[in-house]
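Known limitations

Structure tokens in this collection are predictions and should be treated as such. Users comparing against experimental data should check residue numbering before alignment. To illustrate the layout, the record for VOC family protein is reproduced below. The input appears on top and the generated tokens appear beneath it.
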Amino acid sequence: MSIQEHAVVWAEIPVTDMKRAMAFYGAVLGVELVENNDGPNPMADFPTSDPKKGVAGHLYPGKPAPKGTGNTIHLAVDEPLDEVMQRIRQAGGEVVSPAIDIPAGSFFYAHDPDGNSIGLFNYGT
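Generated tokens:
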């Protein structure tokens, strides 16, 4: 057995309204999600600098877990977390924790408009 470069390779976030979710995540992350119909379901991909390496993910039409009870996916941001918190609220999400400092950086927990648990993480570099 060998240790992989990344333990997580892909994340999927179920949403009830693709257009609303694309607008929310686009506004919060300051990126444009790309519609992708190459798989078995419609998707909206999070952009990544190298799609063949690293960690990426997408939104897909699905049934989210009850509010705040599903897995938490942490998404990277470059901006100060207080600015990202404002964007979460303005885009229809809910901030559910203060910023938390850890050795690798800082993050906070939030819910998207479907109640999915997400973390917004800044490496602090």
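For this record: The longest strand covers residues 105-111. The longest helix spans residues 18-29. Please report discrepancies through the issue tracker.
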